[in-house]
Amino acid sequence: MAANEQPSIILAPDLFSSLIIQQYSKSPIAFHCYSLCKRRIELWTNLSQGGKWIAIPFTQQNTSNGHYEYSLLLNVFHLPPGKYEYTLRYSLELEFRDKNDEFCWSWYGKPDQNGTVCITPYTTDAPMAPSFASVPQLKFVAKEYNDVAHLWHFRSQSDGPAQFTLGKLHHPMHRYVCLIQKGSTWLTPVTGTTHFQGRNANEKCQLLLYQDTERGDIHLWLPVCQYAECYLSFGEGGSIKFHHILGKDAHLLIVSTSQKKHFAQLIQTALGYYGACIQQVSEKDGILLDTDNILLNKLGYCTWNAFGQDADLTRVKAALESLKEHNIPVEYLMLDDGWQLVSENRQLAGFEADTRKFPDGLSKTVAQLKSDYSYIKYIGVWHALWGYWNGVDQAFAAKNKYTWSLNRQHHQEIGIIDDPKAFYNDFYKFLRESGVDFVKVDNQGSFQELSSSNGQQNIALWDRFRRAMIDSGDTFLSGHVLHCMALTPHVLFDPILSNKRKSIFRNSDDFFPEEKESHPWHIYANAINALWTAHYPVIDDWDMFQSDHPFAEYHASSRALSGGPIYITDIPGKHNADLIYKLVAETKHAGYTILRSSQAPQPTFETVFNNTMNAQSLIALHNLHQELHYPNECPKELVTRPHYGICGFWNTGPHEKLAVVSSGLFCCKKLAMMPTIAYVVSGPDRGNIVLLEPSCDYQNDDDSGSIKSVSSNCSNSSSSSTISGNDMSSTLPIWKQSHNTSTTTNMMARVSSYGSTLVSVSTVQCAGLLSMACLGLTDKFNGNVCILHTSMVQYEARLSCPWYATFEAHLSHRSSSCGFWVKTHESLRRRNSRIVLVGLIPGRVRVDGYTLNTKDWTWCSSNGVLTVDMLAASSPSDPMTKSDGNGFHNDVFVVQVDICKA
Q1: What is the b/e burial string over 419-441, where b = at least 16 CB atoms within 10 angstroms of the residue's CB?
Q2: Which pLDDT does position 825 carry in this prediction?
Q3: CA nearest 123: which of 211, 262, 259, 23?
Q4: Which of 85, 210, 490, 588 has the fewest CB atoms within 10 Å distance of its CB?
Q5: Which residue ranges in the chain fall short of pLDDT 50?
Q6: Which of 568, 573, 572, 604 has the alpha carbon at shortest distance from 584?
Q7: Is the bond into 13 cis (omega within 30 degrees of 0)?
Q8: CA gap 695, 697 in Å, rounded
Q9: Alpha-carbon radius of gyration of the chain
């Protein structure tokens, strides 16, 4: 076998990885290996005293589905600071080897391709900011710190030069990621290693995030300025330049932390300081804006990648007819670029639709489409912020008595309305009267490229357009606006947002279906951009995708975690309905809605700092969900509702990779400190399930709080009880007593070449001899987000009850595959002077009070997975009169699992 071929063995962390660990770290380095056959596997490394190369064997962890899993926990507490390396060697299949034969080793990876581990000197000192004493143009303003990070604020001198050199970093840099301006409308991530090698001096860096090799600290540099441009650039030899506009105060915020788990909070800390101390805006405490019930709850269809600018009534009808034939549960339609009446020089020539494409005009077209395709409840239209790509036509402006002026963007003539308030009042009033429900506003950043006025005038004009569009959108469209090509510093630092509902902003450049290299990049760019945009009161939009496409599941799985709208742009007749139904599920009264997380996902530390795209490694994202707290429960301060996690992995390269999941991955102590169950939702290992121990990384956290068990004494049921006094089971925690399920701190899951894998994590609840967890809808990508509330009641033995306990789950959606993990623990009990073995099994399942036939649910005793077909339940005689006592009787599905003695 060639050295660069590994069809049957995978290592994590792979050989592209470069780890930084502080001396005397109590957490061992965890290595994991997957093999299709049984082998002897060894880590070949100089992670030893004196740097001597040694072989350290892996331990076989699990064997399932014809493959073998190995792990190695390597304690480096005793090693001195320095740079170390590792690789992997493995034997041939053991069953073909005579026990007296010498091992014949093969090497993993390419020659001279080793992973690296840098151990930095131990220190308890706080991170230090670079000194700019030799840079007179930059003045120190303030220093602040909290439990997470240290922040330094510097301000440029308003009478200083427009650009000046800050010098080099005062410590060696390991790896960095920065967001640079891509034209006038986007931010895009770029990554690298030491000294910014290969960076273009003309790139405008708006955010720099890096880790140093001196101590392993993580640092953020954020240049900010109100109403003017301000950015960094990189020069020769690793020097950094600061750019700003003369006469304007510009600022540089540097935030540092020594804790890797806090890296994502550096941006939140910087933006919080910027708002409070530079913008000096007061927070709108207590004001909770509604989410967009059109774009965020329902699946949508957009015409762009299906038809481009050639969209017309015939093509739109063909698309809607195809969606109807394939039973695709779309409820809104977005008419993208191509519907408007425009002049030859690409300027808006009227509010009305182009009658060559839509002969009856916009109003009748909208009414006809909603009538002929009754499943389409909402229709939206696209337009550019200044009208069309090159603005507004002069004749149209004169006809409507708008003051008009000619401007230039590069080589294009741009027609600008000088009074955008009047323009948008008329435009959006016309759209509302035409039955339009929402708009997509594109090309929002191009005002800064206008050439016939100075930068300050451009920004003032830009803000007038933004304000007019937002105000008219609130007035006529109830704030249903999707913002696009607006990922630019001025919009981010000085947002103008709706007062009606949370604004939706595109989080990256477009979906490009024909460009293979763009698909991993699209997920990566959204992941990195979310580090910034997640801290704004907006909802990220990861753009449309096509369901019948080689990368369809790659995109669909990422949209499931994105927290934003989900809409497709399928060519008529080309749909993957099975894939689409993994994104939505049926509700009681609102039809099919999206299974959507309530916030943006967070990339892992390795995704941000391991040069993911160049190394063709894994993009890893995670998101969280917490159950609701019901009014009749104990106070929130006394009980913690269970948490759930969903994590996704996207392979950016042509070789299979290994994903590793632990409860600590989610950076959530309330999830990490509880026993959890991990379930592979999608990918090659779909259906695998592993019980995870609490993460040791959080055990000693001072801020852990008192995590209460869900099965605490807060239950108001008089029939509940603790374990019976004559129980002779082990004193180990209940979740550890299973003889069938192996307990580990990690789960391994494969990720196919240019493929994706999703893993859900659920909190385990315990009562007596029983451990249970709700997995949510296991046939959906984000199926645990529908879990609203769970509870478990254990019945006292003296009561004449045939059941040992009842687990109840309240769900917002239903499907044919609602999953539970049920693990019963055999116990020795004394009966009539005899010791007998007692076990528990699921005995009855009810959905909304209806008892399911045993053929409608299955329980696998070997892995503990109970699968319930919720669709098999008949409707109660009068469901509208039934209530669960918490005000959710109209919208919640209630699944009850009764456990009996075997």
Answers
A1: ebebbbbebbebbeebbbbbbbb
A2: 73
A3: 23
A4: 85
A5: 1-6, 285-286, 699-735, 737-742, 876-888
A6: 568
A7: yes
A8: 5
A9: 30
